[in-house]
Amino acid sequence: MKIFTIIFILLLIALLGCDVPCEPCPKAKAERPTVNIPLALRQSNWGGGSCVHACIVSLFRWQARYNTADYWRRTYIGGERSSGLKIKLDRNGIRYAYVTNGDVRFLEWACSTRRGCAITVMGGKHMVTLVHLDSKWAAILDNNSVSEFIWIPRGSLIAEWKASMGWAVTPVYTPAAPLP
Fold first, then answer.
1. Which domain holds residue 158?
2. Strand ranges inside 9-163, DSSP E
3. Which of 54, 65, 66, 159 is deepest in the core (most CB within 10 A)?
4. The predicted structure's pLDDT at residue 179
C-alpha cells in the first residue's frame, strides 16, 4: 500500500509540476499604503504629549523591533524635540535616519524602502507617521486615532510638513514584507 502512495505522489508532482513562474505572470497590485502597519501594531498616544514616541513605537513594531518598541513604550513619555530624541536614540544604540531641513527626498526614501517615518505637522506641535508617498498622494497614521489611514494630496502634505519644521525620523531596520 505504501508503494502505491509514493507512486501516486510522484505521479501528481510530475503532472502538476512545481511552483514555477508563469509566462507571463500577472503583475501584482501595489500595496497601499506602502507601509501598511496592521492595526495591532499601531501605537496610540499614551498621554503627556507622547506623539513622537508613539510614532517611533509604531515604526519599531513595523520594522520587527518588538522588544525595542515595548522598552520605548515603557520608558519614554512626554513631548520631544529632534535634539532630545536624537540623544535617546543614540543612548539606546538605535540605528536611525532623520532630517530637520524639509528635504522631501528623505520622505520618498523612507516610503520607497517601506520603512515609513515620523513627520512633524501642525506647526511642529504634533507628529504623525507617514505611511505612503507617491506622485499624487500621501497617507499618514495619526496616533490620536490609529483606526484608519488619512489620505492627503502629496503637495498639501509636503507643504504642511515643511511649514512644521520639516523634521522626519525613522529607525533603520528591516520593514515587513509586502502583502502577496
1. 43-171
2. 96-99, 117-121, 126-133, 137-141, 150-153
3. 54
4. 76
Judge whether 180 lies within some domain. no
Does residue 34 lie within any of the structural domains?
Answer: no
CB burial of 43-78 (b: ≥16 within 10 Å; e: otherwise) equals bbbeeeebbbbbbbbbbbbbbebeebbeebbeebee
- Say which residue the cell 505521479 belongs to: 11
pLDDT tens digit sequence for 135-146: 999 999 999 999
pLDDT of residue 14: 47
| Residue 35: other Cβ atoms inside 10 A | 27
In a domain, 12, yes or no: no
Q: How far is CA 161 from each of CA 13, 91, 142, rounded to the nearest angstrom?
A: 56, 27, 14
Question: Which region, left, alpha or beta, applies to residue 64 given φ > 0 means left and ψ of -120 to 50 means alpha?
Answer: left
Task: With respect to residue 32, please indicate whether it lies within any of the assigned structural domains.
Answer: no
The pLDDT assigned to 15 comes to: 43
pLDDT tens digits, 18-31: 444 445 444 555 67
pTM: 0.83
Query: What does the pLDDT read at residue 178?
Result: 80
